[in-house]
Design brief:
Aspartate Aminotransferase, domain 1, Aspartate Aminotransferase, domain 2, binds pyridoxal-5'-phosphate, 2 domains
């Protein structure tokens, strides 16, 4: 099933059809664990909800559609989706990943899978040609995040994909920060796309859910086996909420991108700001790659206030009124975070600072409010 519709149509109709029972336009919340059989094995395609649930299936079809992939899989969280990908591997296998990684991903790799004998190398993938020297006979998977969290580094997906293919290594891309509106890694040569749908896809900060999308049928079968055998599936209510969120993904993302661009430019000119990290700036080291592989520059940015330390950064985020101080991102409301003490606290300070996550760094998830109010809020917090 290739992407047959334009993106703005696919978010609403992709993989969806009215419910066969009563023609409900939105798939009902099939709040059931099991399904009646007329004779052993005589069922309508559904036996048990860990394996299949019609609400979840509708969501999985939507995931596939918006990423232009053949198969979508839904999980109980973004990390549960990643966990399923890691279970494709065996002890002794090696994974290459980016050194500026979501804290929870780093924790999953090093605290859960390293003890099982899987080896990880964290390298700077901004220079795609540096990958080659790190690939060994044991390398099975390359795990890329782009743009990265929170340094907004951009990795050239197509360039990494070419090298991965040449060495017969799988390439998985965490597409959470960009969202499917901004970037479609499968089209750039990736094998697996992963989302924390908790963020932009669901988009309303009311659900925790994860997604995988692939094109290869055998890979889909293996992942679907793990999904059922390990069992980290989302319930029908959360599947429904995520599906509803996806239907406005395109209009939300347009505004997220616009507002983030306005705020990035405001901060860059502000006398109290040292540095702004946003891939839309021409001065961003990977701006050219961002321009080719992204449709807009997303709703995330980070900045360092001039002369700030740990406590000054915390004072600024505490003074914000419209931006809520919170973990997470990608909801309609604007959020601010202090990575060193929040999202990235689980990464040791020396490792964290090596990739630029200093104590004074502040991260913004720019929402879809009126940008004039957001700028006013930043102005008062910076001068407080
Ligand atoms: C939030 C997040 C995850 C983890 O997803 P959960 O839904 O919280 O499990 C993974 N990667 C990135 C980039 C994230 O922002």
């Amino acid at each position: 099933m290739k992407k047959a519709m334009q993106f703005n149509t696919a978010v609403i109709h992709g993989g969806q059809s009215p419910d066969p029972a009563y023609g409900a336009v939105m798939p009902p919340i099939y709040q059931t664990s099991t399904y009646a059989q007329s004779t052993p094995g005589g069922h309508k395609g559904f036996e048990y909800s860990r394996t299949h649930n019609p609400t979840r299936s509708a969501l999985e079809n939507a995931f596939a559609s918006i990423e232009g992939g053949a198969f979508g899989l839904a999980f109980a969280s973004g990390l549960a989706a990643m966990d399923a990908v890691m279970k494709l591997l065996q002890p002794g296998d090696e994974v290459i990943s980016t050194n500026d990684l979501y804290g929870g991903s780093y924790r999953l790799f090093t605290k859960i899978f390293e003890p099982f004998g899987i080896r990880f190398r964290f390298i700077d993938l901004q220079q795609a040609d540096q990958l080659e020297e790190h690939i060994s006979a044991a390398t099975r998977l390359i795990w890329v995040e782009t743009p990265t969290n929170p340094m907004m580094q951009v990795v050239d997906i197509a360039a990494i994909a070419r090298q991965a293919k040449a060495h017969n290594v799988l390439l998985a891309v965490d597409n959470t920060f960009a969202s499917s509106y901004v970037q479609n890694p499968l089209a750039l040569g990736a094998d697996i796309v992963m989302h924390s749908a908790t963020k932009y896809l669901a988009g309303h900060s009311d659900v925790v859910l994860g997604a995988l999308v692939v094109n290869d049928e055998e890979l889909d079968e293996r992942l679907r086996f793990i999904q059922n055998a390990s069992g980290a599936v989302p319930g029908p209510m959360d599947s429904f909420l995520t599906l509803r969120g996806i239907k406005t993904l395109h209009v939300r993302m347009q505004r997220h991108c616009e507002n983030a661009a306005a705020i990035a430019n405001y901060l860059a000119k502000h006398p109290a700001i040292e540095k702004v990290y946003w891939p839309g700036f021409e001065s961003h080291p990977n701006h050219e790659v961002a321009k080719t592989q992204m449709n807009g520059f997303g709703g995330m940015l980070s900045f360092i206030p001039k002369g700030a330390d740990y406590s000054k950064a915390i004072r600024i985020v505490e003074h914000l009124e419209l931006f809520t101080l919170a973990e997470s991102l990608g909801g309609v409301e604007s959020l601010a975070g202090h990575p060193a003490s929040m999202t990235h606290a689980s990464i040791p300070k020396e490792i964290r600072e090596k990739s630029g996550v200093v104590d004074s760094l502040i991260r913004l998830s720019v929402g879809i409010e009126d940008v004039r109010d957001l700028i006013q809020d930043l102005e008062q917090a910076l001068s407080a």
